[in-house]
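User: Sequence recovery, please. Input:
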């Protein structure tokens, strides 16, 4: 018999089962037969049996239908009235909205709704080193909009305006975001074992690989599925956490505690190299003293113009560069003519 568990939602377990009923359950009122009926249908027999025992009936009330789904169906006026007081109505697909979400234990309600109408899809890539996660929830658009506000993450909310009967959907995809949402959903019991196993596969994967698919090493520090390694800043020698993916690039990648110190360090290196090459530093531009190849006059030219394999930038003006090349061609032609 009904034990009155839905008089109020004052525990996480009651709120979870109410969310599960909002997703997979329904109530019906038949005045001609003086009947108030409550029905839940699911393919997981053990979970339906847990619900029947929680409400106050035995496992024997769970039956299998012709579609091989397990059904828990009872006629109880008091149970139906309590569910209606909580916001559930007959033909709930047209009436349910975000007002049905309780103010307390909201994530327990979402977990129950997700176990009923949610989906978790895992896609492994690159020899099981990369994991892509898709999670989605189907239902009524106003209710899904309320769920999205609680989750507070950027997701795709699709309103199905056709009459296909599939309903609206709320979806999240990626590597970090879906796992962060599932961490909040499956923080407590009860839960549907089949979907919790998929969540456990995700957490087991995260213990072995980071979000880039690289294997997490023993000396790495894993924070929010991103691996870090302890390094010392090359400028100030301060200890900080550098991303492993940055350090693996080599060179000075991941060797500074901030961008400012990186810029100061490389500026210091440039100035030291300029001093070693006798370069004059004017307005952040490097110059060197050279003699014009035609007239021998001392000039300042940009350091980047100097090239050992050419005469570029080694003249005081364009006229001397042209004359130098013309004289060179004339000498060569004269030498060829006398051969």
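Assistant: Recovered sequence (339 residues):
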């Amino acid at each position: 018999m009904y034990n009155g568990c839905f008089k109020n939602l004052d525990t996480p377990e009651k709120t979870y089962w109410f969310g599960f009923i909002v997703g997979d359950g329904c109530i019906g009122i038949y005045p001609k037969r003086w009947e108030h009926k409550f029905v839940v249908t699911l393919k997981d027999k053990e979970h339906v049996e847990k619900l029947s025992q929680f409400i106050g009936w035995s496992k024997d009330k769970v039956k299998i239908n012709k579609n091989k789904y397990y059904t828990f169906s009872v006629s109880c006026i008091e149970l139906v009235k309590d569910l209606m007081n909580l916001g559930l109505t007959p033909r709930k697909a047209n009436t349910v909205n975000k007002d049905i979400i309780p103010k307390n234990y909201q994530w327990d309600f979402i977990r129950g709704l997700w176990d009923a109408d949610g989906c978790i899809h895992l896609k492994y890539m690159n020899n099981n080193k990369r994991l892509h996660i898709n999670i989605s929830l189907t239902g009524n658009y106003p209710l899904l909009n309320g769920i999205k506000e609680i989750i507070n993450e950027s997701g795709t909310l699709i309103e199905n305006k056709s009459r296909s009967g599939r309903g609206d959907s709320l979806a999240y995809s990626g590597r970090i975001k879906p796992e962060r949402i599932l961490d909040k959903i499956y923080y407590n019991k009860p839960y549907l074992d089949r979907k919790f196993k998929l969540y456990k596969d995700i957490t087991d994967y995260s213990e072995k690989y980071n979000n880039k698919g690289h294997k997490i090493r023993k000396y790495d520090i894993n924070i929010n599925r991103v691996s870090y390694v302890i390094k010392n800043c090359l400028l100030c020698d301060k200890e900080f956490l550098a991303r492993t993916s940055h350090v693996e690039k080599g060179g000075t990648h991941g060797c500074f505690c901030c961008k400012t110190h990186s810029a100061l360090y490389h500026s210091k290196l440039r100035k030291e190299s300029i001093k070693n090459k006798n370069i004059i530093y004017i307005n952040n531009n490097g110059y060197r003293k050279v003699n014009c190849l035609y007239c021998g006059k001392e000039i300042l030219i940009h350091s980047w113009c100097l090239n050992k394999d050419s005469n570029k930038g080694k003249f005081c003006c364009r006229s001397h560069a042209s004359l130098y090349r013309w004289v060179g061609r004339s000498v060569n032609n004269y030498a060829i003519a006398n051969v």
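Confidence is low (pLDDT under 50) at residues 334-339.
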